[in-house]
Amino acid sequence: MKEIDNPIEAPVDQSRTNPLARVFDELVRFCRSRSMFMLHYCTGCGAIELPPAMTSRFDMERLGIQPMVTPRQADILLITGYVSIKTLKRVILTYEQMGSPKYVIGICSCTVNGGMYWQSYATAKQLDQYLPVDLYIAGCMPRPEAVLEGMRKLMDRIRSGEADGWKDYYRRYDWYLGNQQHLFGDDWQTPADVIGEASHYDLAEPGTEGEHTRLLQQCQKPLEPQQTFFQIGGSLEKKGESHE
Amino acid sequence: MSIQTLLMELVLMPLVAFVVGLFMVLMLRRIGAKLQRRVGPPMMQPLYDIVKLYGKKTQISHGWMHDIGIVMAVGGYVAAETLLPVPGMDGIADKGGLVTLVYVMMIPSLGLALGVGQCANPNGSIGIARALTAMLAYDVPFVIVVFGVAWYFGTTNLVDIIAIQQAGGVAGWGAIAMPLLAIAGLFALQGMLGKQPFEIYIAPAEIATGPMVEMSGKYLGGLFVMQCFQLYTAGVLYVSLFLGGGENWLFFLIKVFAVVAIPMTVAFLFPRYKTEQMIRLMWKWPVMIGLLGLAFVMH
Predict the structure, then answer these.
(1) B157: left (phi over 0), alpha (psi -120 to 50) or beta
(2) Does the beta-carbon distance from B48 to A35 stay under 8 Å?
(3) Do B56 and A100 touch (CB under 8 A)?
(4) Which residue of chain A is at minimal alpha-carbon distance from B120?
(5) Sequence-ordered list of residues with C-beta below 8 angstroms from that of B290, at least 6 positions apart, any chain
(6) pLDDT greater than 60 at residue A3
(7) Looking at this predicted complex, what is its ipTM?
(8) What is the pLDDT of residue B18?
(9) Beta-carbon contacts of residue B141 (< 8 Å; ≥ 6 apart)
């Protein structure tokens, strides 16, 4: 597991020649900050603070934040609590299916440093080693006021363009993948083609590919469709095998 | 009518429908918030959502049928707007008529079915199967209502239907002359908008928003635009058939918003029916009320 301490600087985008490009960017950034669809992956006890934040007491919808049910539609991934290693696989799968720009919020101290699960062998300690976390809301557990304050902070960061963790995931994919392989083993793979996406959207950088992505390409197996059988009444047999 | 006026109306009518539809979506969310004792979203929230979705950096397509499905879904409603007369603008309403409009209003569901089919997500397939079943359920009372109205006024031309109603004042409105058909129409409206007792194909907690499950970025944005058009189309059609259309824009908008507010207000008081329950209910009560109304109209 190799750590990279100095983050790579973003290249200056000089391809925009439209004089209104800046105005348009400003508008899109403003709308992004005022409309956030939230996918709450409620892993731990912090989830209990979200219902009061969403419902009539604090009403997140005032800020344009509303819950969505699939990763494709969501902008924010909320991780509320400790992430066991088994859960982390699902969290990463979910994160890679979201459309960019996407933001990860770690709630509760468990996502910051493992919290009270520090000595657990089955818990991922620091979430930002595996996913680019844009915002931590510390506390055990943070109150709804703290959650809303954190959301407002994220809104400010999106509006000023600072919240670009999703770009960091493409730029330093090798480092993130290395940490993931360290936990899950060398044959870890996800259905999303992150390297392909990075090169398609001009976000690939030297940190995107490296020794860990080479290992991924060696161990990668093609994805097979899952076979399901339906039968009404009677016992369920695997028909595919019996005919062969 | 000159060709320039016609072209301008063909552009303006969908635009107006979109802007009015945005406010209807806002009203939907505000009514929901008020019933749950919340404040609700700010005024421009529907617009923020759509701009944000179109401004997404990565757009995940599942093939070109997915793209075309969304275009059909939005395009079907854009075509429907040009067939719906509004105060001062008739578009091609007197050429098309009611039958064409009913036909065009089915295109979005079919387009969505094509697009969602390519996503190959089981939740999406279940959702779209339910959406088409729901269409089967609410279209029977809807067609009875449309037929009854056309029989009563002796024409399928929406411009004429509105003119006849406005000539008779409030007493000449379809809702006064055919109260049973108006009630059956409200039932069908609830199903057509997919509001709560009949919300079987969205069902977020059960099949993860059904047809929308694989939609991200501009695809979801297209569906949000479609929702604006859908609310507007259903509201304006009901107003044209039963509430005398619009004498001027003020009364027109008041009537349309009032009509659309009814299903939304009812929606938040109900849980969700199962698919077979919805079909049984739709084919029993609104059809019975509608047929009774039809019998009164034809005698």
Answers:
(1) beta
(2) yes
(3) yes
(4) A225
(5) B141, B144, B145, B148, B180, B181, B184
(6) no
(7) 0.82
(8) 92
(9) B184, B185, B187, B188, B282, B283, B286, B287, B290
